[in-house]
Amino acid sequence: MKFIQTFILTLLCACLVYFGFIYVSQFDQVKKTASPQESAKENDSALAAEETRPTKKAETTDHSLKGSKKAMDVILYNQMDAPRLYNGCEVTSLAMLLHYSGYEHVTKNALANEIKRVPLNYENGLKGDPHDGFVGDMENGPGLGVYHGPISQLAKKYAGDQVVDLTGKPVKKAIYQSLEKGYPVWVITTSTFDKTDNIETWNTPNGKIDVSFNEHSVVITGYDKEHVYLNNPYGQKNQKVDRDRFEDSWEQMGSQAIIIKA
Predict the structure, then answer these.
(1) Which of 29, 108, 131, 189 is most buried (CB neighbours < 10 A)?
(2) Share in percent of the chain as helix, strand, coil (round to 5)
(3) Which tens digit of pLDDT belongs to each residue from 95-107?
(4) Is residue 33 over pLDDT 70?
(5) Cβ neighbourhood burial of 169 (10 Å; 0-12, 13-18, 19+)
(6) At what angle do helices 148-159 and 89-100 cross, to 10 degrees?
């Protein structure tokens, strides 16, 4: 009798273990075959957790001065071509600018005849001021040059309000933004396109000013990250010049710039 009780008890325990195993297996299977909606919720939760993690702020860099503008096809005039203008770089550069803006009939020599002029040396010992007009003899020398004021006034005789004098503006606005808009730029720089030590202080009718016989005028036609491109009235079209050095020379000469919004 005791044997039978032991057998029955063992059989019951075996049944319990068997059915327990079946139940656990079915539960795991149900968990593995969860509905697509439940799976989607789990994935959404994971994505939400990922999106709430702090992210690195995107770096922003001003590339406005590191871009480029392909050199424009501005006509080249040579100040040494007959009739020669030995010191006529400013009016020769203005003739290029006017031609590009549609005033094709205007010559460098016509502008030379129209620009206001002042003596290199006054009888009272004062020197001419390039803010008043061309200083000295433009055709054969000796002479110095002329600055943006008289050049701007002369340009307005042809192009009127389309002429914009950007002198004194930062290089980005005066030159690079103008080029990006399709406007070549008349500027004053130096003959070496670099800062010069050849600076003199003159007493003029308007007071003391610093001048240099290395002063030169060109038309800026384009730029890239390392260079500016310019029409040099000594006879070079789209000449490539170091950008940093040019900017130094341009600022040293008073940050002078003129465009024509044709």
Answers:
(1) 189
(2) 40, 20, 40
(3) 999 999 999 999 9
(4) no
(5) middle
(6) 30
